[in-house]
From TrEMBL, chain A:
SMART domains the UniProt entry points to: GatB_Yqey
Span of domain Asn/Gln amidotransferase: 351-498
Family: Belongs to the GatB/GatE family. GatB subfamily.
Catalytic activity: L-glutamyl-tRNA(Gln) + L-glutamine + ATP + H2O = L-glutaminyl-tRNA(Gln) + L-glutamate + ADP + phosphate + H(+)
Biological process, per Gene Ontology: glutaminyl-tRNAGln biosynthesis via transamidation; translation
Keyword Ligase recorded: yes
GO molecular function: ATP binding; glutaminyl-tRNA synthase (glutamine-hydrolyzing) activity
InterPro entries named in the record: Asn/Gln-tRNA_amidoTrfase_suB/E, Asn/Gln-tRNA_Trfase_suB/E_cat, Asn/Gln_amidotransferase, Asn/Gln_tRNA_amidoTrase-B-like, GatB, GatB_Yqey_C_2, Gln_synth/guanido_kin_cat_dom
Assigned keywords, A-Z: ATP-binding, Ligase, Nucleotide-binding, Protein biosynthesis
The protein's name: Unannotated protein
From TrEMBL, chain B:
Enzyme class of the recorded protein, top EC level: ligase
Organism per entry: freshwater metagenome
Reactions listed under catalytic activity: L-glutamyl-tRNA(Gln) + L-glutamine + ATP + H2O = L-glutaminyl-tRNA(Gln) + L-glutamate + ADP + phosphate + H(+)
PROSITE patterns referenced in this protein's UniProt entry, alphabetically: AMIDASES
Family assignment from sequence similarity: Belongs to the amidase family. GatA subfamily.
The protein, known as: glutaminyl-tRNA synthase (glutamine-hydrolyzing)
Keyword Hydrolase annotated: no
One Gene Ontology cellular component: glutamyl-tRNA(Gln) amidotransferase complex
Length: 501, 498
């Protein structure tokens, strides 16, 4: 079988997408109990009768999770239902303590929204509208670790370990309507959509949106139809695609796989598939030909969610600026070239640069500190830039000291290093390290006189008008003053001293 | 001493005539003496009960202010969790499980200083009307040990009738407090749904389950009601409103000017002659006490039983899914190479009894795709109609009344193989659960044809529970003056062959 190229696929077929994104909210407590949600704790230490589904335990809705979900719905231009209900989704699995998941079914909290995403096409930037069908709340399951066996799956495992710390973490599921009309850009549009969602969720502050930790997970539904056809093809659902790049790869891979089957006269099987990071291919999971019957019914342990209209309006009024618009605004305000802007976004320093600028720093200087020296130190320490012990306020202060001539660029780097090393605020670092621009002319003159007498031959050359020789003397003076002098001032005073001013 | 009411025991404790330890020991002795025949208890917490009794005696000695039921013993239905005390729900699947937490009802009892003697027998997961569905063997009716004590809370009602405890907690999903009360000659109340927290009540049918007080007098029941009721943030369906003043109502027992609605549809065909006779007599007594008797109609009650047997099994099929051998309780078939799925299957096969399996199957079917609308959906519509019937009727009366159960206690084994006949026991009690209102059963005498107790049911609107206590107390007083002694004094002393 000759491998199809992507170009072969798109010349014949139109892809239709459907994306389901699961977001773990960053509430302090779980969806239906008071247990902590902190990631990475010892297994089964963040559990209680409710999230372990002990007999008799009852769920109580986390109000903060409802607020977060409404915020997401509003940010995605959805209508917020005045009355929505939780439902039980019944199926047996060892990592689901109740053997049903509390979710929402036919009465979700947010419906009918959209997100516009922009991608670079052959004809320049183009915007695509992704329509949102629903945003609903549910709870996460526990985690299974299947030990032994070759597949890492429950079948064939020697035994399985269960960790219920994740059971009951609030999840929001964002489901698109079908997305036709993206043609060959389908993989890029999907990636841009997930990236835009990530940015929106981050701006809302409702989730950590860390795809690698699973706090943002994407399931991609892909089907193909012959170009011009109105009939939808059979779809596959690729689960747990855990990076933006993988979203693109998974969809591209599925498009090729579907096309190969269709070209060979085979049927696409409606099934769940698992994305494999190493190969970029998907592997068959359980078949969905016999659709599972989840026996949904309204959750009798919870009362319906009926958010107050005034509250919704208050939340709407407090929505943050849409990330894509904000990026455009900041780029204009700061006159940042496209490439630099992209670098800031990639390095994830946009927020902190803005914060620094709002504290009075010059945008170019603020950007260059965060993107340059501080990023370099973060890379060196292999930590996130926000994990460093330096704040926007510190950087703004340092920028201001340089502007006032209180620090040279070189000294400023020492201060930055000191702040990051935990030596305190810039002022504290300057004082304990004794960093100071020597601008006391008396002290400088003493050093100049000392250097000129030590290096009298060089001094004479300068006296005789050979100005390039001054460089060596200035260097010596700077050394004498431990680099704390302003080199320009030293030059000025030196030349005056030697009668060359 | 053990034949006194809880109110009398409380007075004796307050006056120093007795101690809680002595009172508790007397009940423990009574349990040792008779429970071999009655089998009301699944677990007797001798040590825990005596420790709590001692604590209360010490507190009283220190002059601490104590509630009216402090130091009085109680029997707890085994469907409510109590920390470190085995809770089985009458099922093999929970054998040996000791809960790590207290239900809110138990926490309230402990705070009130009530002494919990142990856990009482019940139909498995509260599914049944005779306590024959307990995996640990049936409970026997103290009036006639060959007969059932009602169900599902037969252990609690039998414990009261056999003087093993003056107070008990039951739970009522379709009549499991009221029908056992009726057939044992005791008092039982299902409060308004949401009046008592369900946190720690092992769910059978979440939208119908309600824990409630059981005792031998209306006033004792009221005292216990006020101890366990109240808003609980751990139960979302718990009502955030003041507890109805049921003790005051039970004390005054005033029915002058009250309108009592007799439900046309809950009397007549299918009701035993003696049951109807006692019901009519009680109506006369209430009329003599100053109440006005009116007839009300509830045309949709005839669908209540059918709708109930769709809603309750549907919810139970989901509620009981958690019993999967993974985290607690029984585990069967966990041999080398066995899959989680096969362990779940085998455990549920062995751990659940026939009636529980029957209802899980019924409910699973009713919720299945393609059947949901016809079964679960229609049943919910019937539920709305029943609520509307009650609302309309309560425009014409303050409380509604009926016989609690169509018959007196039947023989153990008599209906065990006929689930439909068994389900009919609850025909008069189920509508109350469907509408979420309050219901009480109190003794109205014995049926002349078999000498067995008959129950009188009083139904009151949502959060108007005090009304049924007023009527109950008035009727109880009238009957007492007619009989000259409490009905239970007519009970044979644990006669009949067990």
């Amino acid at each position: 079988m000759s491998a199809l190229t992507y170009e072969d696929v798109i010349s014949k077929y139109e892809p239709v997408l459907g994306l389901e994104v699961h977001v773990e909210l960053n509430t302090h407590s779980k969806m239906f109990c008071g247990c902590s949600t902190i990631f990475g704790a010892e297994p089964n230490t963040q559990t209680c009768p409710v999230c372990l589904a002990l007999p008799g335990a009852l769920p109580v809705v986390n109000e903060k999770a409802i607020e977060s979900t409404i915020l997401i719905g509003l940010a995605l231009n959805c209508s917020i239902a005045p009355f929505s209900r939780f439902a039980r989704k019944n199926y047996f699995y060892p990592d689901m303590p109740k053997n049903f998941q509390i979710s929402q079914y036919d009465e979700p909290i947010c419906v009918n929204g959209y997100v516009d995403v922009e991608i670079e096409t052959d004809e320049g930037p183009q915007s695509f509208r992704i329509e949102i069908e629903r945003v609903h709340m549910e709870e996460d399951t526990g985690k299974s670790l299947h030990v032994g066996g070759s597949t890492g799956r429950i079948h064939g495992a020697d035994y399985s370990l269960l960790d219920y710390n994740r059971a009951g973490i609030p999840l929001v599921e964002i489901v698109t309507k079908i997305v036709p009309g993206t043609g060959k850009y389908a993989p890029e549009v999907a990636k841009a959509y997930v990236a835009e969602l990530r940015d929106i969720l981050r701006a809302l502050g409702v989730s950590d949106v860390k795809m690698e930790q699973g706090s943002l997970r994407c399931d991609a539904n892909v089907s193909l139809r012959l170009i011009g056809s109105e009939v939808l093809g059979t779809r596959s659902e690729t689960k747990n695609v855990n990076s933006l790049r993988s979203v693109e790869r998974a969809i591209r891979g599925e498009m090729i796989r579907h096309a190969e089957r269709l070209n060979n006269g085979e049927k696409v099987v409606q099934e769940t598939r698992h994305f494999q990071e190493d190969t970029g291919l998907t592997r068959s999971g359980r078949s969905k030909e016999q659709a599972e019957d989840y026996r949904y019914f309204p959750e009798p342990d919870l009362v319906p969610v009926a958010p107050d209209a005034q509250w919704i309006e208050k939340l709407r009024a407090g929505l943050p600026e849409r990330p894509s618009l904000r990026r455009k605004r900041l780029q204009e305000q700061w006159s940042v070239p496209d490439k630099e802007m992209a670098a800031m976004i990639n390095a994830d320093v946009l927020n902190i640069v803005e914060e620094t600028v709002l504290l009075g720093a010059d945008p170019t200087k603020a950007r260059s500190w965060w993107l340059g020296e501080i990023s370099r130190l973060a890379n060196e320490k292999e930590v996130a830039i926000t994990a460093l012990a330096i704040t926007a306020k510190d950087v703004a202060e340092i920028v201001s000291l340089v502007a006032q001539g209180e620090l040279t660029d070189k000294l400023a780097r020492q201060v930055v290093e000191g702040v990051i090393a935990g030596e305190g605020t810039p002022a504290q670092v300057i004082s304990t390290r004794g960093i100071k621009v020597v601008n006391d002319d008396g002290a400088l003159m003493a050093a100049i006189e000392k250097v000129c007498s030590e290096q009298s031959e060089t001094a004479d050359k300068v006296r005789n008008g050979h100005l390039p020789a001054a460089g060596a003397l200035i260097g010596a003076v700077m050394k004498e003053t431990k680099g704390q002098a302003d080199a320009a001032r030293v030059r000025e005073l030196l030349l005056g001293h030697l009668g060359q001013a | 001493m053990i034949k006194n009411s809880a109110a009398e025991m409380s007075a004796a404790l307050s006056s120093g005539a007795t101690t809680s330890v002595a009172l508790t020991q007397a009940h423990l002795d009574r349990i040792s003496e008779v429970d071999g025949k009655v089998h009301a208890f699944l677990y007797v917490d001798t040590q825990g009960a005596l420790e709590q009794a001692k604590k209360i005696d010490d507190a009283r000695a220190r002059g601490e202010k104590l509630g009216p039921l402090a130091g009085v013993p109680l029997a707890l239905k085994d469907v409510l969790v109590q920390k470190d005390v085995p809770t089985t729900c009458g099922s093999k699947i929970l054998e040996g499980w000791r809960p790590p937490y207290d239900s809110t009802v138990v926490a309230n009892l402990k705070n009130a200083g009530v002494v919990i003697l142990g856990k009482t027998n019940m139909d498995e997961f509260a599914m049944g009307s005779s306590t024959e569905n307990s995996a640990y063997g049936p409970t026997h009716n103290p009036w006639d040990l060959t007969r059932i004590p009602g169900g599902s809370g037969g252990g609690s009602s039998a414990a009261l009738a056999a003087f093993e405890a003056p107070l008990a907690i039951g739970t009522d999903t379709g009549g499991s407090i009221r029908q056992p009360a009726a057939v044992t000659g005791t008092v039982g109340v299902k409060p308004t749904y949401g009046g008592v927290s369900r946190y720690g009540l092992v769910a059978f049918s979440s939208s119908l389950d309600q824990a409630g007080p059981c005792a031998r007098t209306v006033l004792d029941t009221a005292f216990l009601h006020e101890v366990i009721a109240g808003h609980d943030p751990k139960d979302s369906t718990s009502i955030n409103a003041p507890v109805p003043q049921v003790v005051a109502a039970a004390k005054s027992g005033d029915v002058k000017g009250m309108k009592i609605g007799v439900v046309k549809e809950l009397n007549g065909e299918g009701y035993q002659a003696g049951v109807r006779q006692r019901f009519e007599e009680s109506l006369e007594l209430l009329a003599q006490a100053g109440a006005e008797i009116v007839e009300v109609s509830a045309p949709n009650f005839e669908y209540a039983l059918a709708a109930y047997y769709l809603i309750a099994p549907s919810e139970c099929s989901s509620n009981l899914a958690r019993f999967d051998a993974m985290r607690y309780g029984l585990r069967v078939g966990d041999t080398d190479g066995a899959s989680a799925e096969s362990v779940m299957n085998m455990t549920r096969e062995v751990g659940f009894g026939r009636e529980v399996k029957r209802r899980i199957l019924l409910g699973t079917y009713a919720l299945s795709s393609g059947y949901y609308d016809a079964y679960y959906g229609s049943a919910q519509k019937v539920r709305t109609l029943i609520t509307q019937d009650f609302n309309k009727a309560f425009e014409k009366c303050d409380v509604m009344v009926s016989p609690t159960s169509p018959t007196t206690a039947f023989k153990i084994g008599e209906k065990a193989d006929d689930p439909l006949a068994m389900y009919l026991n609850d025909i008069a009690t189920i509508p109350v659960n469907m509408a979420g209102i309050g219901g009480m059963s109190l003794p109205s005498g014995v049926a002349p044809e078999d000498g067995l107790p008959v129950g009188f049911q009083i139904m009151s609107p949502v959060m108007q529970d005090q009304r049924m206590y007023s009527v109950g107390a008035a009727l109880e007083a009238a009957l007492l003056s007619k009989w000259g002694a409490p009905l239970l004094s007519q009970a044979p002393a644990l006669g009949g062959a067990a």
